């Protein structure tokens, strides 16, 4: 993949705008999830859905549709909800869908202009094809995810496994766009430890993706609520008892997970465990970069990585400690956004390591 020369500034700004929009789409999605707003719109109208209900009659119709299609959630969480409160949760799901439409417009119009001007090289066209595929896949699984929570008498929220697929696709979309934007600045000088740095970078990125998937399970199963303590051994007797329940070995409990404490305990333990491993490896990587005398650019980038991993760990702790009764909105959303910033910092170091030119 030849990316020797930087692309035009207008193309780079366009890619950055797309990257920022995807970041905020993930943030909006997190708010939508944590405010229990995802099931508030029960229909998929690509064109008509651009506008919210107009007038009291249409709002009442949308409210009744929610009460019927998301009956389990409504009766469990919102039985005393007013129309005004329904409009609030409707807003977040509406904004999440509207933002997706806006991303399509921001992508398409400049793309057609740059393509007509022949400012898009072949390597960029291939990556943009992957971006389009991932964006379409995210939209499709968004529909699948929402439908998994509608007309289900046994499920209060959307299916957690569908949620992590939707989240992972969005994560890959962010990662591909971030990498594309970095490549648009040209090929950096090849570092003498390029192979080692790139191997470490891609390895950390892969482990972070696993951690994001576990975080999606934590959110989808509300697993953080069963033990809001840090470290885990504080008041850990009940937590350890949940971990050793025989029900955790039953496949059926991993499918119908809402009443299962054991499943949620194992998910929380896995998420905590990978957090320690990821943090330790990130710090080890930073120390190796210092020992390798990686240069000023990579040295500065390693400090960004240190700040990102430290902040993300702290946000994870604060999210757990405040998960009493419900997952805290602010900490939960910041923790989700922090994962993407951590991914970007890892990709940045990997990019700075350079890449040998093809023979």
Describe the protein in words.
The protein is an all-alpha fold. It has two domains: 187 residues, no CATH class; 171 residues, no CATH class. The protein is 70% helix and 0% strand. The chain is flat and about 60 Å long. It starts with 8 loop residues before the first helix and ends in a 7-residue tail after the last helix. The model has no long low-confidence stretch (mean pLDDT 91).
Amino- and carboxy-terminal Cα gap: 11 Å
Q: What is the chain-wise order of helices and strands? A: HHHHHHHHHHHH
- Count structural domains: 2
In total, the number of strands is 0
**Poorly predicted sequence stretches spanning 5 or more consecutive residues:** none
Roughly how much helix do the residues carry, as a percent range?
over 70%
Counting DSSP H or I runs of 4 or more residues, the number of helices is 12
Radius of gyration: 22 Å
Keyword list:
359 residues, mainly alpha, single chain, 2 domains
Write a short abstract of this structure.
This protein is mainly α and 359 residues long. 70% of the residues lie in helices and 0% in strands. It folds into 2 domains: 187 residues, no CATH class; 171 residues, no CATH class.
Q: How are the elements arranged and paired?
A:
Layout: H1 9-34, H2 56-69, H3 71-77, H4 83-116, H5 122-147, H6 160-183, H7 194-221, H8 237-243, H9 251-255, H10 261-291, H11 296-321, H12 329-352
Helix pairs in contact: 1-4, 1-6, 1-12, 2-3, 5-6, 6-7, 6-12, 7-10, 7-12, 8-10, 10-11, 11-12
């Amino acid at each position: 993949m030849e990316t020797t020369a930087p692309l035009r500034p207008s193309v780079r700004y366009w890619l950055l705008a797309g990257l920022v929009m995807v970041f905020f789409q993930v943030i909006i999605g997190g708010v939508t999830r944590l405010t229990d707003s995802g099931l508030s719109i029960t229909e998929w109208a690509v064109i008509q859905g651009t506008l919210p209900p107009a007038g009291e009659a249409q709002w009442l119709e949308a409210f009744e549709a929610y009460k019927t299609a998301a009956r389990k959630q409504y009766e469990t969480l919102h039985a005393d909800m007013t129309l005004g409160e329904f409009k609030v949760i409707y807003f977040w799901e509406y904004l999440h869908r509207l933002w997706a439409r806006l991303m399509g417009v921001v992508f398409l119009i400049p793309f057609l202009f740059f393509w007509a001007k022949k400012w898009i090289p072949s390597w960029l066209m291939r990556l943009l094809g992957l971006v389009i595929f991932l964006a379409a896949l995210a939209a499709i699984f968004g529909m699948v995810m929402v439908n998994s929570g509608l007309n289900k008498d046994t499920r209060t929220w959307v299916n957690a496994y569908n949620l992590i697929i939707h989240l992972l696709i969005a994560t890959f979309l962010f990662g591909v766009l971030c990498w594309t934007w970095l490549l648009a600045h040209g090929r950096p000088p090849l570092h003498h430890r390029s192979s080692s740095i790139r191997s470490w970078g891609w390895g950390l990125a892969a482990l972070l993706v696993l951690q994001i998937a576990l975080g999606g399970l934590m959110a989808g199963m509300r697993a953080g609520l069963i033990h809001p303590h840090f470290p885990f051994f504080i008041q850990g007797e009940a937590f350890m008892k949940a971990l050793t329940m025989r029900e955790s070995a039953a496949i059926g409990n991993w499918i119908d997970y809402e009443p299962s404490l054991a499943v949620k305990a194992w998910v929380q333990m896995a998420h905590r465990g990978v957090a320690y491993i990821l943090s330790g490896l990130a710090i080890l990587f930073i120390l190796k970069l210092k020992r390798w005398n990686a240069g000023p650019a990579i040295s500065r980038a390693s400090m960004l990585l240190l700040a990102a991993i430290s902040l993300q760990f702290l946000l994870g702790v604060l999210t757990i400690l405040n998960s009493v009764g419900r997952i805290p909105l602010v900490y939960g959303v910041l923790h989700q956004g922090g994962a993407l910033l951590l991914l970007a910092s890892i990709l940045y170091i990997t990019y700075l390591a350079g890449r040998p030119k093809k023979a």
